[in-house]
Fold each of these.
Amino acid sequence: MAKKIAISIPKGGVGKTTTAVNLAAGFAIAEKRTLLIDFDPAGACALSLGFNEANMHGDIFQVFSFTKFIDAVVHKTKLPYLDFIPCQINTYDLEERINRLSRNIYLFSNVLDQQALTEYDFIIIDCPPYMKGLTTVALAAVDSVLIPLRSGQFSVAALKKMFNQIEWVKTTINSELKIEGILLNMYEPRTKAWALTIKSLNKHFKEYLFKSVIPKSIAISEAEFYGKPSMLFDVKSKGAIAYLNLTAEILNKNAVPNIYRLTEADYIQQANK
Ligand code: ATP
Ligand code: MG
């Protein structure tokens, strides 16, 4: 049975998509069969994995609207253990339809329970930067939520909102929902903004903070232009190493055996594909 993790916080630009893509790649590199599902109508995961209109053949919402079976919309990626389901909402009409469909709170749980998905070890879901609709549908269906955060007072405010929503989901729809952890992203040591953010987080959220933090890294932002997770772009970069550390931390926390077998030469070969 796959462990299902939603990447979510009601705040834009904090690194949800970046974390979804790089964590999914990290699990795949650790040879865990992983499925990344883009649940954000913005559809950014596809770009980060090198997909475009021409090489995609269906998306998650065709499954929702019963026009395709789930196996027909699973895309293979450059990493043998990583599969991907995109989100291709490119008209207002479609977005409206999705919003209507997402009123059925159990829709996604039913989709994730399908036989075709039992082969995965991890399913990662990249959520949009708002709580209503799709995010609630995702939270109803997953085992845990990973919350990325950047520095700033607004981020801490969004975190409080996120925790309120998690409580609501737990009491109304999914009592088993857990918090996988809070991830500090675009971390810059010795900056006042981060010192203040951490001081504020330590008051209420200390127990949820991952030990791994993701530094602000040029390789992370550049990698997406090349349609690659950071490990396939520059495995020695601080960003790639940080995401591999996060992967290991989550595997250890969940008591999943963790054997990295790929060598650096393998990464380079994958990156050049
Ligand atoms: P949205 O809410 O709009 O979906 P998001 O939370 O998914 O945004 P991302 O798209 O992952 O955020 O990241 C926003 C931008 O920040 C991207 O251009 C990404 O490359 C950059 N970014 C994310 N994490 C890092 C990092 N650790 N170092 C440098 N740049 C980063
Ligand atoms: Mg995003």
Amino acid sequence: MIISMKKGATKEQIEHVKTLIESFGYRVHESVGAERTLLGAIGDERGKERLTCLEAQPGVERVIRILSPYKLASRETKESPTVVDIGFGVKVGGPRIAVIAGPCAVESREQIMEVAHAIKESGAHALRGGAFKPRTSPYAFQGLKNDGLLLLSMARDEFKLPVVTEVMDPAHIEVVLENADCLQIGARNIQNFQLLREVGRTRKPVLLKRGMSTTIEELLMSAEYVLSGGNHDVILCERGIRTFETATRNTLDLSAVPVLKEKTHLPVIVDPSHGTGHARYVEAMAYAAVAAGADGIMIEVHPRPEEALSDGPQSLRPEEFRRIMEGVRNVARAVGRDV
Ligand code: PEP
Ligand code: MN
């Protein structure tokens, strides 16, 4: 349930209503808008009769029942788009398209520095790179782990780029928090509810990648886990779903972008690299994502894709990335955005 306070509700009235909500056994999620304050009552729905009675309290405008199963992620709760600041002033969800680029995995100091330098020169806003890699095969390269995180943090300091990296295990959250600016939850962990709860307890932005077989509603329910922990900085990422099609690695569901935009206030980005699995299709899908209304794109870039320890076939060379950045700028302008 959402308790919408009147436009001119006083601080005391808001505090009083918050105390009442808590006394009913709910947690309060406060959202202060330009016009009015919304108070979300988080907890099980059994006490909703008591919440409805709050309508009689001074300063309360309305008590609204949220129909969607995801409450905090819903547009019904918050109409204005959420803008997530991932560090160094880089905002995801505002008028500018955020471009996050970098290798699938951090492989060496030289590699990450070379990529970070190249993407910065081309105008990317954030550096990605996996230190803990979720690989299908236990024999495949699993990432440089803590050493990879240190290299990412060196690249971040050198090039003033916020770092996005995956966290796979609650036990690693602390060390990832020390070295990164945005915690990525990968497609394979999108329904790892314990992990979602743990990142929900942190105050670092979280990038949630849609699973290969999660519906849009399930993705939003995963976001709800993070939001309900008090972490409001959640970014959603469409990265392709599994279908019968084998010409591409996944089927990039670009229609998820307008659907998500309608259902949630959270920013939405698209990963055309994992979405297609082939470097030669990334350009078209990156442009299409921006045209579809995405707030950002995440692209894999490697100095020598043929030598990459993971996802080489879908990685762009720095010069290809530079060219695509130009195109992204043009498409963004055409749809009234900036890069
Ligand atoms: C990645 O971003 O490197 C990755 C493993 O992505 P996904 O979880 O979408 O497969
Ligand atoms: Mn990858």
